[in-house]
From TrEMBL:
Keywords on record: ATP-binding, Cell membrane, Glycoprotein, Kinase, Lectin, Membrane, Nucleotide-binding, Receptor, Signal, Transferase, Transmembrane, Transmembrane helix
Localization, UniProt: Cell membrane
Record-linked Pfam families: Lectin_legB, Pkinase
Protein name: (wild Malaysian banana) hypothetical protein
Domain Protein kinase stretches: 382-664
A GO cellular component annotation in the UniProt record: plasma membrane
Length: 727
């Protein structure tokens, strides 16, 4: 570590010397920090998550840097990686005799380089944090700064300058290559495209020069704060100096954000997009705005991939361009020929499909069977233009059948497991009729001839749901759902589940996969429960036998994971999770976060139902605080650890209708369950509420990793159902 200070020039007017000295002495902190790192040692930084120190190449370690021969690498060469590196001790950020934030100046040399054969993302940030560690931050678009719950929380007390290479609409990012100033949120208070204003010969700023953050170039950034103004400047290291005009200049008061001392450092993350995030040198001072002059910018390693280095032979590139143009022309001709051939092949393939012999279980549903050729015509040959969704077991197309718009699900596989899912939907949903269930209009099962590739074509035809699924509305980046619609949809799903459990005279139907993505919304935003691929029916009074563990992570009742046995209480549990998701706008299971149920129970115990409701929900149109408390209470009651202590779906429906002062009637204890859930949200016991005065034992909810492990051993779900992935 080295220190460097510039001497005052003798031309300073004498009359300004005394006031300037007064300002300097006023703002100089009692614990002045003046750090310069030309490379790092293990004792210089505390590293968290995937952050490591990597050796400089021998050619990039001159004498001034040999005793610190490592650079900081914040992320691993892998998806969904995050890292954070902080000074071991907090720095003073407020004067001892004032509440004003102290000035500071920092500069760092960094490189964001692509990984071969991978799309680059997501970004790096310089930050101030109130405590050490990652503080629950997640990877992907959250940059290792926040997570879904903490983003936007004023209690975070985080200031960051982000260098972001992905455009996230939910954070109002200006583009996929920008610099932003973040205060407690990834929605920047100010942002600008990455670049700099070079100085012309007269000292003024010339035309703006744009930069590509993630091309591997070594950049230098400067972040200065004084007098309530934060300046951010950057330039390529090769530029050799700090541009006079900053890229960002923001009026921002940090007095109410900073504590007396804050931790300072860097963080970065990747998602499904991967890149390297490196810091090669760093200066920080709260007393010397010239500390950055001590950074060594010569002989730095080159991280630019060979394919992106400057052109060395323009004629070679011209030849390559001509070859590419010729190939494009040939591919265009080939594409036209293939399109014509595909149409002919599609016509032949439809002619080579013959209907399979009807099995015994299908004979009962013959009136709803649809010819394969009709479905092909309705979907325009399963064209990509009609593709509206895809999942782990098939694709969904829109089409027109008999003048009515329909949704057509084509199973992607024809193995025994998918055949069971197909049969389950036909044998249950084919006979169920309720306004809050997705209507099954028909199906098709046809045997392809050998010439057509063989195998079975299994197809289900549903009512078309114009407004997609509920998860798209509460977790997506589009228009938020108003509060009244949210509660109404929950009531409609509860009504559907009640019909399955009690309203169908033939048997009890267990859905076994109630979740937000299986709640569909029609043109009038009516909630309809769909996807009966895991549904099972059994006679009343007789329990369903033990099966493999099936369902979705976060929605599985604890007893299902332990025993594999599903009951109506397991559907109630899943519904309770859904209610908590609607109140919190957070998925049931997210990597890096505690399970929603456990978190909600703890939050309600400490701050009541209001603590569970997300601030975005409170800001939604028509929000009603009392109704929100009722939704949370229903969710907590339905997700009790003991199956016998949960309400029935009939009680759930009545709980939604119960008011604050409503009392139980006719021996029905729905209101008492509601009040019990509201007054004792922190109750944790396998025998809780099952019998009065029972011995209470503490319990814990399954963690995300335990859910994932149990499912990976015995579930039929696809990976996307179990592991929630970011962008």
């Amino acid at each position: 570590m080295s220190k460097w200070r510039r001497k005052a020039k003798p031309t300073l007017p004498q009359r300004l010397l005394v006031p300037l000295l007064m300002v300097i002495f006023h703002f100089t902190p009692s614990a002045a920090i003046d750090l310069v790192f030309n490379g790092f040692e293990a004792s210089d930084l505390d590293l968290y998550a995937n952050a490591t120190l990597e050796p400089f190449p021998s050619s990039a370690a001159p004498a001034q840097r040999r005793h610190r021969s490592r650079y900081l690498s914040l992320t691993a060469n892998d998806t969904f990686s995050l890292g954070r590196a902080l000074l071991p001790s907090p720095v003073t950020t407020k004067s001892a005799n004032s509440s004003e934030a102290l000035p500071f100046a920092t500069s760092f040399l960094f490189s964001i380089a692509p990984v071969p054969q991978a799309l680059p993302g997501h970004g790096i940030a310089f930050l101030f944090a109130p405590e050490p560690g990652t503080l629950g931050a997640t990877s992907s678009q959250h940059l290792g700064l926040f997570n879904l719950s903490t983003d936007g929380d004023p209690s975070d007390r985080v200031l960051a300058v982000e260098f972001d290479v992905f455009q996230n609409e939910e954070f109002n990012d200006i583009n996929a290559n920008h610099v932003g100033v973040d205060r407690n949120s990834l929605t920047s208070v100010a942002a600008a495209p990455a670049g700099y204003w070079p100085d012309d010969e007269g000292g003024a700023a010339a035309s703006f020069v744009g930069l590509t953050l993630n091309d591997g170039t070594n950049y230098q950034a400067w972040v200065d704060y004084a007098g309530g103004r934060l300046n951010v400047t950057m330039a390529p290291v090769s530029f050799g100096r700090k541009p006079r005009r900053p890229l960002l200049s923001v009026e921002i008061d940090l007095s109410d954000l900073f504590l007396d001392k804050m931790y300072v450092g860097f963080c970065a993350s990747t998602g499904r997009l991967v890149e390297h995030h490196r810091v090669l040198g760093w200066s920080f001072s709260n007393s010397n705005f010239s500390a950055a002059d001590g950074l060594i910018t010569a002989d730095l390693p080159n991280f630019i991939p060979p394919a992106t280095e400057s052109d060395a032979n323009s004629r070679r590139h011209l030849v390559i361009g001509l070859y590419v143009a010729a190939i494009v022309v040939l591919l265009s001709i080939l594409g036209i020929w293939m399109a014509i051939s595909r149409r002919r092949s599609r016509k032949r393939s439809t002619e080579e499909v013959c209907e399979e012999t009807i099995e015994d279980w299908e004979s009962e549903y013959w009136p709803h069977r649809i010819a394969y050729q009709e479905i092909v015509t309705a979907t325009e040959g399963f064209s990509n233009g009609n593709l509206i969704g895809r999942g782990g077991n098939g694709r969904v197309y829109k089409g027109v059948l008999g003048g009515v718009q329909v949704a057509v699900k084509l199973f992607s596989q024809t193995n025994e497991e998918e055949a069971k899912h197909f049969a389950a939907e036909v044998s249950t949903l084919g006979r169920l009729k309720h306004r809050n269930l997705v209507g099954l209009r028909g199906w098709c099962r046809a045997r392809r001839t050998a010439a057509a590739g063989g195998g079975d074509a299994m197809i289900l035809v549903y009512d078309y749901m114009e407004n997609g699924s509920l998860d798209q509305w509460i977790f997506g980046a589009g228009q938020p759902l108003d509060w009244g619609s949210s509660v109404r949809i929950l009531r409609e799903v509860a009504a559907a589940a009640l019909y399955l459990h009690e309203g169908w005279g033939e048997a009890v139907v267990l859905h076994r996969d109630i979740k937000a993505s299986n709640v569909m919304l029609d043109g009038s935003m009516t909630g309809r429960l769909g996807d009966f691929g895991l549904a099972r029916a059994h006679q009343r009074g007789r329990a369903l036998g033990t099966t493999r563990v099936v369902g979705s992570a976060g929605y599985l009742a604890p007893e299902v994971v332990r025993t594999g046995r599903a009951t109506t209480a397991t559907d109630v549990y899943a519904f309770g999770v859904l209610a908590l998701e609607v109140a919190r706008w957070r998925r049931a299971a997210e990597e890096g976060l505690p399970p929603l149920v456990a978190w909600a129970r703890q939050a309600a115990a400490m701050g009541g139902e209001a603590a569970v409701v997300d601030r975005r929900v409170r800001a939604s149109e028509g929000y009603d605080e009392g109704e929100a408390a009722r939704v949370v209470a229903v969710g907590l009651a339905c997700t009790r650890i003991a199956a016998a202590a949960r309400p029935t779906m009939r009680q759930v429906v009545r709980m939604f209708e119960a008011g604050e002062d409503e009392t139980a009637d006719g021996g029905d204890d729905s209101t008492s369950l509601l009040l019990d859930a509201r007054l004792k949200p922190a109750m944790r016991s396998d025998k809780a509420f099952a019998s009065a005065g029972a011995q209470r034992q503490p319990h814990r909810h399954l963690t995300f990793e335990e859910l994932r492990h149990s499912l990976s051993c015995s579930t039929s779900l696809s990976g996307s159902d179990v592991i929630l992935e970011g962008r």
